[in-house]
């Protein structure tokens, strides 16, 4: 996902793939909010299409009235009528899938992909798939006169748009909102992708990028691997009768080596029963891929992850492939991305990872919201305006038991609202927001900030906050955000952080911020990573995907 991806934008082009067959508890109104107010600049990035004029074939044309007749006979494809008309109008109703009366190679490639939708992690059927398969088969008949067939032509184009909807766009906006995903959905002109697909011969070396976030194709390759593994293995749990340590010799060691070999973490001799350095390295690699502390020992948490059934991992990959369909294809700008289950902030330029750091996110009862914003302000030595929920549920009870509570925590009452005192915590090293905060205005009252509780960044699971995101490298983030103002040197930033007087700085250039949720992703070394579903978001989406009941 958003973690440590390779700098280059690597997506297998479509033809080669075809050929291979809060600091506050979130209220109800927050959960129902629509995140659809991107600034024009970002919207422009999200609606990019691949330009192209189409193939050179213009002699074979058909009457535009044939589209209406085709749709009358295939009513399930009526939702794609406008796509069909726009596409053929641009090419003056010339056949797209025929040359010299014969179907071009891309027709068979598209059909192959349609007949193998589960390779895409899709369980939703596309109308008339078998009809298309029959038409393609019939077109290869040696006794048949070679001439274009309007039914086959229109079926192929309509099926492309149907495929694009489920494979490239994914489930509807209502589905993503129902699973609390408030990142704006991408907008793509799929006819331009079809235009370019057919313009380039499949054997041509130049790549045609698919209109999906790059992680999609990487996860898709691992989906195939895990499915193959699932057909060959029972994956019985490995149970340890005692703790294992380096130097031990046991038959169970061989079983662990074998399992890690199948998961591509271990490269040595699986028949060797000795707990050797190779196994230590393999366990550490496995632990890092699963967000665990890398102590190289097969402890309870490590063995629990090793024993997760393959079918559960397959489901996890499929769920995150669907989430990839909802993200922008790419952004040619600086941006920040937080992956909640990974507890990481990643800083990018044009999809090239610059650096990352640990973060602390919201507890399960104070979940950090999945949404998009634009960073606008850096606030040094900030005040903390305590949310009503914290005042009511935490501070007031503490004040009743300790009359000196406010003084001890450097807090003051500045007024009253809704029957509650308005409480501020003064700037300083003990301030709950630390020495700096980063604001991107949003309806969820969520922002990034420093913290005096530095020890939490050393935990492997870091869901401790009331919803806001605590940043492990606040000074480095401040420097990155203020890089367009040369007067903000490292020394000046450090001084402002320790001044004890609040200072708000408006950024010269706003910074896109994505708060996302991926429990399966590949890192920059192309290693598959899994993380725990800390907010229980996967099962609901998995159920809709695998039952085929999700709305598209």
UniProtKB/TrEMBL annotation:
Residues 334-483 form the L,D-TPase catalytic domain. Residues 251-306 form the Peptidoglycan binding-like domain. Pathway: Cell wall biogenesis; peptidoglycan biosynthesis. CDD domains: YkuD_like (cd16913). SUPFAM superfamilies: L,D-transpeptidase catalytic domain-like (SSF141523), PGBD-like (SSF47090). Residues 82-223 form the L,D-transpeptidase scaffold domain. Keywords: Cell shape, Cell wall biogenesis/degradation, Peptidoglycan synthesis, Transferase. Gene3D superfamilies: L,D-transpeptidase catalytic domain-like, PGBD-like superfamily/PGBD. Belongs to the YkuD family. This is Murein L,D-transpeptidase. It comes from Mucilaginibacter angelicae.
